[in-house]
């Protein structure tokens, strides 16, 4: 048999996802296609996840009209990060004699060579690419040719259906009509459970005013002023780049909440967090507070928004494939109003003209500073630098 694998957050599954799946089944001659919803993604942070069980059920409802479409709970039930290579290895064990096809959208192909063990993925599957944006086929063909030395890649010629889960969630939260984007059974399911609706307690949870009192008690006057400045910078950057300004302000405000705790208290929070932390981070005092802060905000304030938590966790070290909010907090911390290091004005200008270029400049600046001081560089920082270097090269092409 020819088995297709289609991973993603599916938060919620929409008509674009189904269109892509049915197109793949038809064009690539698949006997079965499995939707594989992720529990957590190493490269994309998605705020406001519906519970795992609800995302699975919505997929089952949307897929039941076509007997070639199936839903796998492998990643949902996994106790580790959902790297695609692990999922491919799982399906290889399940279907040892069958041909595997990995389905990705156009945005995924363009960054595919940054994925964990991407060469091994291409050694085990045929990569099937379906366009998600009009006019991107020439770019997709070029990227497929570049990656062709690692394995077989097929680019579909089918026209895309441009729908975004983010936009669907925004419409639901604003009580706007969203029914044209989803299967009618999924619409009914969302309405029956009130998924993605803004609840009063959520608004209160992300209210920054009560957090300012806590910050003021925990930080020196200088650090508190810095936190306020970063929050304001993050709000402005969010407005510039289409993110939620209130969420950006909240994340920026709390990014240094554990900065001035004693080192042993920071380490205790890091160890209790369960987060994956490299040796370089554990051995460097100045890197502990981001990890400790993310866990503290989750534990003490009940914040479950993974985008906010990751923005705090990675605001010092960075990483590859940061979400837009993560980038905003990372850059906002570097260009806040009180910063006066050499070339800060250049960094500020870049932050508001080309965020990707600003991220690369920021990574280079950070690494040079560490090297000059004789410090060690976490692997996630190196991966972040390489990611944005490749991204800018691709943009220039």
Describe what this molecule looks like in 3D.
A six-stranded parallel β-sheet has the order 3-2-1-4-5-6, sandwiched between helices. Helices cover 57% and strands 8% of the residues. The protein folds into two domains: 162 residues, Rossmann fold; 196 residues, Hypothetical protein af1432 (Orthogonal Bundle), CATH 1.10.3210. The two termini are 38 Å apart. By secondary structure, it is α/β, with parallel strands linked by helices. The chain contains 21 helices and six strands. It is globular. The longest helix has 21 residues.
Summarize the structure.
This protein has 397 residues and is α/β, with parallel strands linked by helices. The chain contains 21 helices and six strands.
What does the secondary structure layout of this molecule look like, with pairings?
Layout: E1 2-8, H1 15-27, E2 32-37, H2 52-63, E3 69-71, H3 74-77, H4 84-94, E4 99-105, H5 106-110, H6 118-124, E5 126-130, H7 137-147, E6 153-155, H8 165-173, H9 184-193, H10 200-205, H11 208-218, H12 221-241, H13 245-254, H14 263-273, H15 279-282, H16 285-301, H17 306-313, H18 324-335, H19 344-351, H20 355-372, H21 379-396
Parallel strand pairs: 1-2, 1-4, 2-3, 4-5, 5-6
């Amino acid at each position: 048999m020819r088995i297709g694998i289609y991973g993603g957050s599916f938060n919620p599954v929409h008509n674009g996802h189904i269109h892509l799946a049915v197109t793949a089944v038809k064009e690539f001659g698949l006997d079965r296609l499995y939707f594989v919803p992720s529990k957590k993604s190493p490269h994309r942070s998605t705020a406001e996840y519906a519970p795992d069980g609800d995302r699975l059920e919505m997929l089952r409802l949307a897929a039941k009209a076509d007997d070639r479409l199936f839903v796998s709970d492998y990643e949902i039930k996994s106790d580790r990060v959902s790297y695609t290579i692990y999922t491919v290895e799982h399906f290889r064990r399940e279907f040892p004699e069958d041909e595997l096809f990995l389905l990705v959208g156009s945005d995924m192909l363009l960054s595919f060579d940054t994925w964990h063990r991407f060469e091994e993925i291409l050694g085990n599957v045929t990569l099937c690419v379906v366009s998600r944006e009009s006019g991107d086929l020439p770019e997709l063909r070029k990227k497929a040719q570049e990656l062709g030395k690692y394995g077989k890649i097929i680019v579909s010629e089918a026209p895309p259906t441009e729908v975004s889960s983010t936009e669907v969630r925004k419409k639901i939260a604003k009580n706007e009509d969203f029914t044209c984007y989803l299967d009618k059974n999924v619409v009914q399911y969302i309405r029956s459970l009130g998924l993605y609706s803004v609840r009063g307690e959520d608004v209160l949870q992300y209210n920054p005013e009560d957090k300012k009192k806590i910050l003021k008690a925990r930080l020196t006057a200088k650090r508190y002023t810095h936190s306020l400045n970063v929050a304001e910078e993050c709000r402005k950057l969010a407005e510039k780049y289409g993110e939620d300004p209130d969420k950006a302000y909240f994340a920026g405000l709390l990014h240094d909440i554990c900065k001035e705790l004693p080192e042993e208290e920071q380490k205790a929070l890091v160890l209790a967090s369960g987060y994956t932390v490299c040796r370089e981070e554990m051995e460097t005092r100045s890197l502990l507070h981001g990890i400790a802060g993310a866990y503290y905000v989750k534990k003490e304030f009940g914040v479950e928004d993974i985008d906010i938590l990751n923005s705090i966790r990675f605001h010092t070290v960075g990483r590859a494939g940061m979400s837009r909010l993560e980038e905003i907090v990372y850059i906002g911390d570097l260009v806040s109003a009180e910063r006066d290091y050499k070339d800060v004005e250049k960094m500020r200008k870049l932050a508001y003209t080309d965020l990707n270029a600003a991220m690369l400049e920021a990574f280079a600046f950070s690494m040079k500073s560490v090297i000059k001081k004789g410090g060690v560089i976490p692997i996630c920082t190196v991966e972040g630098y390489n990611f944005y270097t490749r991204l800018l090269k691709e943009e220039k092409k």
